[in-house]
Specification:
- The structure holds three protein chains of three kinds.
- By secondary structure, chain A is an alpha/beta fold.
- Chain A folds into two domains: 235 residues, P-loop containing nucleotide triphosphate hydrolases (Rossmann fold); 175 residues, 3-Layer(aba) Sandwich (Rossmann fold).
- Chain A has a six-stranded mixed β-sheet, with helices on both faces.
- Chain B is globular.
- Helices cover 54% and strands 14% of the residues of chain B.
- The longest helix of chain B is centred in the N-terminal third of the chain and has 18 residues.
- In chain B, 30% of the residues are buried.
- By secondary structure, chain B is an alpha/beta fold.
- Chain B is built from eight helices and five strands.
- Chain B folds into two domains: 66 residues, no CATH class; 109 residues, Rossmann fold (3-Layer(aba) Sandwich).
- Chain C has a single domain, classed as ABC transporter involved in vitamin B12 uptake, BtuC, CATH 1.10.3470.
- Chain C contains 14 helices and four strands.
- In chain C, strand 2 and strand 3 form a beta hairpin.
- Chain C starts with a helix and ends with a helix.
- The chains are: A alpha/beta, B alpha/beta, C mainly alpha.
- Chains B and C meet through strand 2, helix 4 and helix 6 of B and helix 3, helix 7, helix 11, helix 13 and helix 14 of C.
């Protein structure tokens, strides 16, 4: 079963001013295999693929494609050599059709006029082979994120790509879309095309890949056949130390702090739950299941809801963000870059942003207080910088998330609402954030964590409710349940599957 | 009807003035020279600064050419500048203020309005630089109040200019009443 | 350490340009460094400095105000006609300031409450205010005001011109407001990430309104100085004022997308424009060439700023 090696990378070194990004990294890719590239943020994954694709220049080392060393590497050359990169951000023309996107730059000509029929026919042929049954004339902007990604992959195939590099392909995808993507990858395998697959999500890698290469601090810490290793081993290799998932403390729930009664909007129906002091409640739901909607009602962003919200047994009669904050609610949103952080501002400013009297005295800023509060809480959450004037946009994802959690801790919010708290965060930071939430709640606070990352919920929550299509389909105590059960309920189409049986 | 006729005739008269401009200029020059008794011979080359309203208008461009021709004829140096746009009164004032320190022996100005250059003119007066207003005029009362001395004014009275052809026409059509009725 | 900090400061590009230009001009023209000329530069830059202060507040929120020139005209015409009709000078000044704050209020309301793009709103109000001023004045300039008013434009205290003094006061107050108060703090935050600020329960409407009103206020002050200095109010006044103020602010590394910038940078930017205009007039550069050169200098300043940005991101 020895397969032919199509690409091999030998002793690659790359330095940026002040950092050694890659140090003697070796790595090889066989024909028709899915090779996962794993590592924490900053381990050098992106640098490595950028060098292979030609976006960055290597300092030393060699890249050998089909037995020949590549001297000049540039994105244009890579396309000619049959290497395609599917970046995290979509690179499609949104207002053009699928066919036009697939043939961008390679338009079939007939008498010096672009032949639309040829383009559409060929596209639909390609799309069929990927189980994409829609008209090639459809505009790309009308497609879901997952479909757009498939279009991008088809475009690469159309350019006779033999190697497809995917950088965090499941980033914005729902569970169903991930499934489709895996089907696409399988089709690629059948066509004997190799895939370099970069991801954070351990589960996916074990499902799809044949071999795993793990990078740590710019060095290769091993290549394994996927079936021969366990998740724990891989995590250990990535982090370089054993992460103990700290055992859950037994908590005694205190007074009721939050109660939601018959909450309904256009997207959610009759949501009921309560939250007690010290508790961490999990909301398990896939993308679009209505989990964010629930938070938006409680936080006062969405005021047009039916039903009642009680905070500390007091009904919210006039919902607004300001009131929610006053009553001690803190909301860490799903998209930290868009709705969470002021990216160009300092860490101190971000932590103290919702504060009023704590840092202002008759409208004038007390810089000392601002610094004091922010250093106190950034230390508490274990931020990796001591410099409070550090610009938040330059922090890593995990640290940005910590800044947002520090914000609400500093505001002394008794109820934290966390929406996908560890999305795009590396394994180590993920663990730290989980510990943070646990510790904070053990200090007589409470939290609601909504996530589609079910192992995460199982790790931190004491109770989990599962929602699907805007309805609560099941509530669990976090005992003797596993990911499979949660997923089963979460994909149950609002519980319809169970009603039928 | 009469109104249009008047406008038409005004245009004609302006054109005819324009056509005879060359000879008019020569005549004026000779008149001035005889009045002054010929140019004074000196060894010093005088430097004159001229500030116009704008150079985005043929009128002022022609005036600039006139300035430069006269400088050649009479043997002095001249710098002609203008404000960036016709309405930018404060920019014009800034120009004149900066020109003051260049040590010109005399200044010719064409103010955008009768008041905007007065602050700089009064500074020129303090420095004993003679200032002549050309083309447009400076409000004499305001200038006096601000201690600004205008040594000469060479301006067109547009009201008078309009009145002349009007009078001429009125004179010609005195007896023909039907025209009035139309 | 300090060197790097200076290099990373957003004002770096424009400061370098200013210093460079200063040295260049003093070589090119022996008159440039004379005391009279230096005061002259300050005097000529004073209105731009004041305008750029308000503009900074607007631009850091991610907005822009093109209507500044028109607001100044409206305010100037109103003050002038009131004084002409025998109204007390102080009352006229207050009325002028109120109308300019009101114009800012209109801009702020349309931008913040109705959430229209500031570029379009102020493009429209620029035309509206200008039209209103023309209608009100009948298109004719208004001349001749009491001496106590002219003093604000042409007077001087201890040989420092009054406009320079007014500008200095404005700078000191605005630096404080920008750095130390809620308004400056939140203005920057709104420009940085509007959604995030909303999620923190901050009243965006209030602060955005305030920002546009501050811009109206500074424009009003600039209008007082200009009207007093020229002893006349032109209904066709300098419409380019607004764009010059924007240029001065942008030169200092303030991004038009908001979130970064400082008043000090804008002041340096205005001085740079002042030195440029002054120096070129001294060198007898015609006004067309002046416009051309100013455009090039803006590009150079922005370019230096970009290099600085790239450098500090790599670190």
């Amino acid at each position: 079963m020895e397969k032919r090696t199509i690409l091999s990378v030998k002793n690659i070194c790359k330095s940026f001013p002040g950092v050694r990004a890659l140090n003697n990294v070796c790595f090889d890719l066989q024909e028709g295999e899915v090779h996962a590239l794993l590592g924490e943020n900053g381990a050098g994954k992106s640098t490595l693929i950028k060098i292979i694709f030609g976006l960055l220049k290597k300092d030393s080392g060699e890249i050998i494609l089909n037995g020949k060393e590549l001297k000049i590497i540039s994105p244009l050359k890579s396309y000619e050599n049959g290497i395609a990169l599917i970046p995290q951000e979509r690179t499609l023309l949104m207002h053009k059709s699928i066919a036009e996107n697939i043939f961008l730059g390679l338009e079939p000509m007939k008498n010096k006029i672009i032949s639309k029929t040829a383009m559409i026919n060929k596209s639909s042929e390609l799309m069929k082979s990927f189980n994409m049954n829609i008209a090639p004339e459809t505009l790309v902007s009308e497609l879901s994120t997952g479909m757009q990604q498939t279009v991008e992959i088809i475009r690469a195939i159309n350019r006779k790509a033999k190697i497809v590099i995917m950088d965090e392909p499941t980033g914005g995808l729902s569970a169903q879309e991930v499934k489709t993507l895996f089907e696409v990858i399988k089709t690629l395998k059948e066509k004997n095309i190799s895939v370099i697959y970069i991801s954070h999500r351990m589960e996916e890698i074990f499902e799809i890949s044949e071999r795993i290469t793990i990078l740590r601090d710019g060095e290769n810490s091993g290549t394994y056949v996927t079936q021969s290793v366990t998740k724990e081993k891989v995590i250990e290799m990535m982090a370089g130390k054993k992460i103990s998932s700290s055992e859950r403390k037994e908590i005694i729930p205190g007074d009721k702090v939050l109660e939601v009664k018959d909450l309904s909007t256009s997207k959610i129906k009759n949501i009921n739950f309560e939250l007690r002091k010290g508790e961490i409640l999990g909301i398990a739901g896939l993308l679009g299941s209505g989990r964010t909607e629930i938070f938006e009602c409680i936080y006062g962003i969405n005021r047009n809801y039916k039903g009642k919200v009680f905070i500390n047994s007091e009904e919210c009669t006039n919902p607004s963000v300001n009131n929610a904050i006053k009553h001690g609610i803190g909301f860490v949103t799903e998209d930290r870059k868009r709705t969470g952080l002021s990216l160009k501002s300092s860490v101190a400013k971000n932590i103290t942003l919702p504060m009023k009297n704590e840092i202002f005295k008759r409208g004038i800023i007390n810089t000392k207080n601002m610094k004091k509060i922010s250093s106190e809480y950034s230390e508490k959450v274990g931020l990796n910088t001591k410099d409070m004037s550090f610009i938040s946009g330059n922090l890593s994802g995990g640290n940005q998330q910590k800044v947002l959690i520090a914000r609400w801790m500093a505001k002394k919010s008794g109820i934290l609402l966390l929406d996908e708290p560890t999305v795009g965060v590396d394994v180590n930071a993920k663990q730290e954030i989980h510990n943070l939430i646990r510790n904070y709640c053990s200090e007589n606070n409470a939290a609601v964590v909504a996530s589609s990352d079910f192992p995460e919920l199982l790790d931190v929550c004491s109770r989990i409710i599962v929602i699907s299509e805007g309805k609560i389909v099941k509530e669990f105590e976090n005992k003797n349940i596993d990911e499979k059960i949660l997923l089963e309920y979460a994909t149950s189409a609002g519980g319809k599957i169970y009603e039928e049986n | 009807m009469k109104k249009y006729l008047v406008v038409f005739l005004v245009f004609i008269s302006i054109f005819s003035i324009g056509l005879s401009a060359q000879s008019a200029f020569e005549r004026a020059k000779n008149d001035v020279l005889t009045e002054l008794g010929g140019p004074v011979k000196t060894n010093k080359v005088y430097r004159v600064g001229a500030l116009e309203i704008t150079l985005a208008n043929p009128f002022w461009v022609t005036m600039k050419e006139g300035f430069e021709a006269a400088a050649k004829d009479f043997g002095f140096k001249i710098d002609v500048v203008a404000a960036p746009s016709e309405g930018d009164a404060s920019a014009q004032l800034n120009y004149l203020e900066t020109m003051l320190i260049k040590g010109y022996d005399a200044l010719c100005i064409s103010p955008i309005n009768p008041f905007n250059l007065i602050p700089a003119v009064s500074k020129a007066t303090q420095r004993k630089i003679p200032v002549i207003a050309v083309g447009t005029y400076v409000d004499p009362q305001a200038a006096e109040d601000a201690g600004a001395k205008i040594n000469g004014m060479l301006a067109v009275d547009f009201e008078y200019q309009g009145k002349l052809p009007g009078q001429y026409i009125a004179e010609k059509f005195k007896d023909k009443k039907m025209l009035k009725q139309q | 350490m300090k060197k790097i900090n200076f290099f990373r400061a957003p004002e770096f590009g424009v400061s370098v340009a200013l210093i460079g230009l200063f040295i260049l001009m003093s070589f090119l023209s022996p008159l440039f460094l004379s005391g009279y000329n230096l005061i002259n530069i300050l005097l000529q830059s004073s209105t731009y400095m004041i305008l750029s202060i308000g503009m900074t507040f607007v631009i850091v929120t991610g907005g822009i105000d093109l209507s500044v020139g028109s607001i100044a005209v409206v305010s100037g015409i109103l003050m002038a006609s009131l004084m002409k009709n025998g109204v007390n000078v102080y009352l006229a000044i207050i009325a002028g300031l109120i109308i300019s704050i009101f114009c800012g209020f209109i801009n702020g309301f349309l931008v913040s409450k109705i959430s229209l793009p500031s570029f379009i709103v102020t493009l429209a109000t620029m035309s509206i205010f200008q039209g209103a001023a023309l209608i009100f004045s009948g298109g004719l300039p208004i001349y001749g005001f009491p001496k106590s008013f002219s003093f604000l434009g042409i007077g001087s205290v201890l040989s420092v011109p009054v406009p320079v003094i007014i500008a200095l006061i404005c700078i000191i107050i605005s630096v404080f407001v920008f750095k130390k108060t809620k308004i400056g703090h939140y203005a920057l935050a709104i420009g940085d990430n509007r959604q995030a600020v909303k999620m923190c329960g901050i009243n965006i409407f209030k602060y955005e309104m305030l920002v546009y009103m501050i811009n109206g206020f500074t424009t009003g002050i600039a209008a007082i100085i200009t009207t007093a200095r020229l002893n006349s109010a032109e209904p066709l006044g300098s419409m380019s004022m607004g764009l010059d103020a924007v240029a001065a602010v942008v030169m200092s590394g303030t991004s038009l997308s908001g979130g970064t910038g400082s008043v000090t940078g804008a002041i340096i930017g205005s001085l740079l424009m002042g030195v440029l205009r002054n120096g070129m007039t001294l060198l007898n550069v015609q006004s067309y060439y002046q416009n051309l050169i100013i455009g090039i200098v803006i590009l150079i300043a922005v370019f230096i700023d970009k290099i600085r940005n790239d450098y500090s991101y790599k670190k």
